[in-house]
Q: What sequence folds into this?
């Protein structure tokens, strides 16, 4: 080793929140390094006073400076200036970003220390933290049967590799199956999706496990043992012929999940006519027999002997896989949380997802846009023969881009709102349709053109998001500032569609813990690098695809799912997989750093 | 209508309170959620636009900040946490200094030294004048009903002269400032050509909104109006009694509880204390949007008014109980707080809103009537 390098380290913790790595522990760690002569915290120096920074550099005769912490690039320029002023080279200011290499939480403090060890020796973390390759189990688990999970499964299975596709509900298809059309081409969503679903159901290399949940994961990259809970379906998948005589007689009813609660289904049901597998299942919560111990009507009318077993219990099975792809998707923002918009209070304020079902030819009204009505028992549902609205308003950014709910942009709402506006004008040609938006984010290929098209179709665009919705007689009163027109609008419409944003699912945290992956502040699963590797995580053998990694539209979801599949296939073809960076201990990285810095010196 | 962009405008206005106007992304939520906006008078978002663009003339010619009663709905629902309500408050402070021709308002708002120096200076002068005026000193003899001879110690004709001097100075300043406000917001506003008759047809606005602040009631679901009105009515009543009717109010006789001097005095004291305590607790606990941010002038206003009220109560108690020295000193302290408070707060600072608010409503009504 050469002479002492006299390094100064400055810790930058911009958020100051407690849920970060332990800065004082890292400071103690770096102080032990003989090359480090001073360590500063954010409060030790005022960066705005350049002269003081220069003085400090001169006083300790520092030759290099490392700026470390969360987003340290924000303050690097201060030190570059000061280093030049102190007569040093500007390139001797280095940045060690914790966040970039996945050191985010208090539990990642060891990783942050490793990042510092690399920075002090001038070795890149990625180079030092290479993990050894081990052989792997070629089977893959895909969690979630939406479009992302379907695409990833098909990519891998079509390459001849075994896939286990686990889906929580009774059918695959996810949210895309609920949509009527896709933007900007206005293709029928089901026409794209259902052939893929059928392919999944028939694929010899795909083991489809619907009505199942992942309960636990053990093992390491390449060799995971996954415990799967097979929830009691109470109908035999192999023998059910899907005749429907059971549902005809079944007395139990519940809101249809597939129809976004716009209509009712029986306790024994097929989620929707194109479901895969197209077999019945029993929802325990609405089943009279499960709840009250008496009924068994379905068993009596079922033409297949022993097909329905009302006393079936949940089971657990273990499977062994080498790779896991997470494609769990999202949940729509709960519109009743934003009380001002009147969802849940006024029947004709509906969410975009409800409207997708309403406009769908296979939906509760056969594709007619009608007012919400009540059935005999007072349940609020949609019926085909109700009255048709004459004016419809779409309000954007419900639960998105809002400090009170979610700060992020949900990315898809502008475009789907344009699509829904188009569908309204198509179904009710004389209807007045208005959109109230903050910014119109038409960000993709053909999207801006789609926006122009919808404008030319006569949909009124108002820049200014509605602030409140109130009932006024049979109509709804909207109060909006029309920013471009300089007007205050108080307008009455018949129906309001709330463009609800996307949120991580409730069980995302549980799943992240189970699989040992990180989540962003907003709760989306964390990829290892947003730009260069948006599908892998820091845990080896675990990839993410679709909205569960962050809001995105269908084309992006499909692209990411294919990318995740290619990463998986890469390891299968090689027959080897890298262990998790997470599994590397600090001392392993330290010794790697020492080796690397020695070779450098020899050169 | 062209105007020069002033890039330093936000730096100037920042001195009146730390605003978060760069946060605003112009969704229009604040304007639409506000119960007081109407076609032609859109705020707070438009103010944000003018601020971000440095449109000084637009800001100085707008009455909109005075039309806001700060219920805080805009701030609590703002998707950017840009605190539109507080920005309106900051603009009101700025506008007060813009209307003020002496330049003192800006000094008091932006410099703690000037504010405290002025208060202490006027306080000391008041004490000096009182000691000078009081040739009799402390009179230890009591009246027949056992009260202190306050009116002999501080003869009301002398105090009245002081009162009227103060009132004339304050009114003179306030009236000239209102004239400037009118010039900037009505005459210089090129977007509207004011019809002369509307000055008369809309004059009722001035009286009604000065006396009732009825618009405050539109801020939904909150009882701000009530305590604000109690505070306001108590203050106006007390002010009228001690300035206009001092010989009637300040006497050595101890009145019975049912006589108007006492009933009105008690009502005014109650109104003041009730309103002040509510504001004080609110600001201290920051218990709603309205009180989340407190400028030093907001605190000074409340604290000085509370001290004035308490010393006023003490004078009353000491006097009717025959406590001579206590009455003497508490009376001096009472005035030494009251006089600077009125001299500083009413023409130059927070209290000027008692005039600017109703006038803004009046001017807005004139503009509206002229646009028809």
A:
């Amino acid at each position: 080793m050469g002479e002492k390098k006299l390094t100064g380290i400055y810790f930058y913790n911009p958020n100051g929140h407690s849920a970060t790595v332990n800065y004082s522990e890292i400071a103690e760690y770096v102080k032990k390094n003989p090359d480090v002569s001073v360590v500063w915290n954010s409060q030790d120096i005022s960066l705005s006073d350049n002269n003081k920074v220069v003085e400090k550099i001169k006083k300790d005769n520092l030759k290099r400076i490392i700026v470390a912490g969360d987003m340290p690039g924000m303050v690097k320029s201060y030190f570059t200036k000061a280093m030049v002023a102190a007569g040093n080279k500007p390139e001797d200011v280095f940045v060690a970003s914790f966040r970039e290499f996945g050191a985010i939480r208090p539990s990642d403090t060891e990783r942050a220390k490793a990042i510092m060890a690399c920075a002090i020796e001038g070795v890149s973390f990625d180079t030092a933290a290479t993990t050894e390759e081990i052989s792997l189990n070629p089977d893959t688990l895909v969690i979630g049967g939406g479009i992302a999970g379907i695409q990833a499964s098909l990519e891998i299975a079509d390459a001849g590799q075994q896939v286990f596709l686990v889906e929580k509900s009774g059918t695959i298809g996810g949210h895309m199956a609920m949509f009527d059309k896709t933007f900007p081409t206005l293709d029928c969503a089901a026409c794209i999706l259902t052939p893929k679903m059928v392919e999944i159901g028939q694929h010899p290399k795909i083991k489809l496990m619907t009505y199942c949940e992942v309960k636990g994961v053990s093992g390491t990259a390449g060799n995971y043992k996954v415990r799967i809970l097979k929830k009691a379906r109470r109908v035999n998948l192999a023998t059910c012929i899907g005749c429907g005589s059971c549902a005809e007689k079944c007395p139990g009813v519940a809101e249809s999940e597939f129809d976004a609660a716009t209509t009712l289904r029986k306790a024994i049901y097929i989620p929707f006519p194109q479901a895969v597998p197209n077999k019945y299942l029993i929802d325990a919560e609405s089943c009279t027999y499960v709840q009250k111990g008496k009924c068994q009507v379905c068993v009596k009318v079922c033409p297949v002997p022993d097909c329905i077993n009302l006393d079936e219990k949940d089971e657990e099975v273990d499977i062994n896989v080498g790779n896991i792809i997470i494609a769990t998707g999202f949940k729509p923002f709960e519109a009743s949380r934003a009380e001002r918009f009147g969802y849940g209070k006024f029947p004709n304020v509906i969410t975009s997802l409800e409207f997708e079902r309403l406009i769908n030819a296979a939906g509760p009204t056969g594709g007619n846009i009608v007012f919400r009505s009540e059935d005999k028992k007072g349940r609020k549902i949609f019926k085909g023969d109700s009255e048709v609205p004459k004016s419809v308003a779409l309000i954007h950014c419900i639960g998105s881009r809002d400090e009170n709910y979610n700060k992020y942009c949900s990315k898809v709402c502008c475009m789907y709102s344009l699509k829904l506006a188009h569908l309204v004008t198509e179904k009710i040609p004389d209807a007045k349709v208005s959109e109230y938006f903050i910014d119109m984010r038409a960000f993709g290929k053909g999207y801006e053109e789609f926006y122009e098209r919808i404008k030319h179709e006569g949909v009124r665009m108002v820049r200014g998001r509605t602030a409140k919705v109130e009932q006024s007689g049979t109509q709804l009163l909207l109060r909006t500032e029309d920013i471009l027109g300089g007007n205050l609008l108080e307008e009455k419409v018949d129906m309001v569609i709330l463009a609800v944003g996307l949120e991580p699912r409730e069980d995302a945290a549980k799943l992240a813990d189970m699989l040992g992956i990180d989540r962003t502040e907003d709760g989306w699963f964390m990829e290892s690098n947003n730009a260069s590797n948006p599908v892998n995580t820091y845990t080896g053998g675990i990839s993410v695809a679709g909205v569960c990694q962050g809001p995105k539209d269908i084309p992006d979801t499909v692209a990411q799912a294919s990318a995740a599949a290619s990463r998986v296939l890469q390891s299968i073809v090689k027959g080897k997989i890298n262990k998790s960076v997470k599994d590397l201990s600090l001392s392993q990285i330290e010794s790697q750093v020492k080796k690397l810095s020695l070779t450098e010196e020899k050169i | 209508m062209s105007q020069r962009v002033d890039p330093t405008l936000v730096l100037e206005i920042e001195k009146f309170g730390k605003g978060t106007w760069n946060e605003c992304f112009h969704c229009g939520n604040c304007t639409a959620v506000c119960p007081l906006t109407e076609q032609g008078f859109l705020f707070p978002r438009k103010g944000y636009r003018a601020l971000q663009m440095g449109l000084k003339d637009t800001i100085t010619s707008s009455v909109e900040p005075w039309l806001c009663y700060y219920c805080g709905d805009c701030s609590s629902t703002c998707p950017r946490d840009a605190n539109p309500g507080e920005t309106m408050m900051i603009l009101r402070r700025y506008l007060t200094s813009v209307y003020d021709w002496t330049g003192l308002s800006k000094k008091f708002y932006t410099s703690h030294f000037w504010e405290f120096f002025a208060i202490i200076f006027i306080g000391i002068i008041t004490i000096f004048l009182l000691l000078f005026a009081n040739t009799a000193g402390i009179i230890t003899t009591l009246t027949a009903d056992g009260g202190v001879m306050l009116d002999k110690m501080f003869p009301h004709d002398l105090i009245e002269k002081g009162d009227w001097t103060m009132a004339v100075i304050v009114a003179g300043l306030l009236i000239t400032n209102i004239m400037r406000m009118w010039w900037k917001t009505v005459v210089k506003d090129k977007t509207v050509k004011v019809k002369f008759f509307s000055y008369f047809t809309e004059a009722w606005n001035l009286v009604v909104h000065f006396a009732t602040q009825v618009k405050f009631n539109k801020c939904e679901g909150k009882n701000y109006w009530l305590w604000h009105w109690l505070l306001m009515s108590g203050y106006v009543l007390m002010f009228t009694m001690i300035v206009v009717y001092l010989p009637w109010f300040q006497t050595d006789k101890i009145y019975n509880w049912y006589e108007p001097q006492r009933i009105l005095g008690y009502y005014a004291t109650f109104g003041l204390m009730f309103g002040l305590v509510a504001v004080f607790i609110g600001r201290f606990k920051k218990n709603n949007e309205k009180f989340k941010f407190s400028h030093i002038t907001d605190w000074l206003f409340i604290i000085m008014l509370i001290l004035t009220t308490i010393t006023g109560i003490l004078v009353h108690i000491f006097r009717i109980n025959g406590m001579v020295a206590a009455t003497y000193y508490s009376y001096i302290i009472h005035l030494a707080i009251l006089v600077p408070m009125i001299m500083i707060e009413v023409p130059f600072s927070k209290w000027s809103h008692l005039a600017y608010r109703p006038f803004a409503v009046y001017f807005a009504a004139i503009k509206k009537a002229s646009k028809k």
Remarks:
- Chain A touches chain B at residues 340, 397, 401-404, 438-439, 463-468, 479-483, 486-488 (CB under 8 Å).
